Target: TonB-dependent receptor-like beta-barrel domain-containing protein
Amino acid sequence: MMVRAVAGVAVALWLSAPVLGAQTAAPLRQLLQDASLRNRLPDSLISYKANVETEIAILLRREEGVEAVGAIEQVASRLRWNRAGGYEQRVQGYRAQQLGGNVSMLTLFQTGWINPVLYGNRLRVRPRSSNSRGQAAAVSRNRDGSDTLPAVHPLATDRDAYYTYSGGDTIVTMRAGDRVIPIAHVRVQPRPDVKGKVILFDGEMDLDASRGTLVRLRGHFLRTGASRSSLGSTLADAVAYVEYENGERNGQYWLPATQRIELQANSPLLGDGRAVIRIVSRFANMEVNDTVLDAATLAKADSLRALARRPLTYASTDSLNRFSAWRYTIGASTNGMHADDFQDIAPDRWRTTGPPRFDLSAPRPADVMHFNRVEGLFTGVGGKFALRDLAPGVVVRANAGYAWAEQTVRGRVAIERTRGPWSLELRGGRSMDITNDFRAPLDSGNTFAALSSLDSYDYVSRNFTALSAVRRIGARRWILRADVGYGDDRYRAAQYVRGPFGGDLYRANHGVDEGSYMRSAAVVEWHPDLNAESLKPGLGARVAYERGDGTLSWQRTEARLSGRRPVGPFMLLARGDVGMVTGSRIPSQQLFELGKYQNLPSYEDKQFAGSRAAALRASLQYTSKFLRNPIRVGQFWLPAVAPGLSVGAQSGWADAPTNAARASVDRLTVIDPTLLALWAPVATPTGRVRASVTAGFRFFGNALFVGATRPVDQSAKWRTLVGLGQQW
Model:
């Protein structure tokens, strides 16, 4: 879904032109004039070839700013360019890691995606559509037969007819060999009076103030005169950002060093979250003027008239399988980048400044539609009112919906104020909360899996109010959170015996101790976007403390450490969780439960429960050298089959050492009169450390597992295990 959201919106939508800034000052005009003269394609620059390593990451930026990576593809290619318009990009190596089934992002790039030079009066940019039909349409529209479209360069000789500029101050210095280079920063904005349809740039330039050469281009391209009257463009925003960085070559040419393309899409279903495709290309082993062109060809070569076709070819299957000269481990090239890097030039809907603005927006997709055995089908709507300049940092959010089987209205209202690294939020509402433990960070419930009788969650109906304070430290390195508020928990029975589309009987919703309480909590997260369930390599940790005082009273502590590390063809991932809850009468919904979908795949769903628990899992995954080439199916590319081996171990322990804990475990059992049979007791302590092992094959970037599992703490047979994801 993440891929479809971006591919369907981000590639196709052009944004309207913004309001202009101040007129260009005299010193800046002189700087731009010098830079424009030097941005002419140098007569002595004939050609170059380079190795390019590209990483394509598919991710979701969550509403609180944390990113979760769902797929990474790494592409090694060899690029050849010459000034007469010659371009060839040949893919030599490919590998991928995925959490689920997705098409390959090469589907978006049927032609080369590299912008070979930033010299000239026009930049060549990709057309709206990247599939074969879109290319054919683009070619038929372009008289020169190119598969790219011309955009007016912000340093073109005719730039003043299209752009206004501001800034120009020296902001930083950089070193290239023995030379210290002062960098001037210039803001570029399209003029509002441009007539007709033309592609322009909106963003910023970094110029070598001593020589007037272009060092960096950062922003996005837009088409003037494009209509945004459709319902989709009214409700959603999508932007294709670029960040092109040049490096000095041979002491006289500025040629590509790093190029970043980022497609970001936002819709009401994602709230403040965004679906993102991040493409980062790094250049190495560049050889300049490796080609000799004859005088006639050189005479025709002109940066205004070069055809700029960008063919993309692939090495043979055998060559792709043998490729091993990777410069970066998978996930390293995009690590440290974030969707908010472009916040200052984002669409108005995403900005925190400007006049007050209201948008239809729900915090999570599940707030718009979901299904479970307690509520049945839930449909809802949400809104967001950002006061922006009227009250900087203040945002009001509300969502409401109806659970059709339960016949209940649920929703939330929140008022948030953000100032610098601090956020304060007052919220309240009525929700159906999940009581599962040791969950993955992006686990918000199986939105529609329950339709086929697969509902591994238990639910509590909760009315709540809360005041929260959040402090962010560093570039999303630490997040500290404190909460205080009121809660009231109520039990709701399952409304369905089995899923609407058939399947096994649902089990009863586990027991809930009803009552009210004052709740206080504190959470510390380290590297919140690094965890075993995300494909970013590295370590992350979380520690949480919670207590309730009132009719329901308890104290609960949890800790988690997780991470992943690629080592050549191997991927090592691990996660450990521990928790403890205490109280004279422990609410059943606060217990820890383990089982088939809760870290022990060889056992039954939620077979074990206790007031103290620990869970540890680790997996070693190997990707073979065979079938590494992506698969073309019509207009689509699928990730390489890339078969591999996988072994994993999962262990869990749950204990109920006190009478209060054992009584709480017993209260999980609920007699449901709609069921013909009842397995009793619902759960028990493990009695000892329980453990499972998994072994099998992985395919499509380790996304698909086909294998078997069995417990190792007792004699048992192997059971077939098939699934998506990398948790085993």
In short: The helical segments are 2-9, 26-38, 132-141, 231-235, 295-300, 317-322, 659-666. The mean pLDDT is 85. The chain has two domains: 2-344, 357-619+647-687. The CA atoms of residues 52 and 141 lie 30 Å apart.
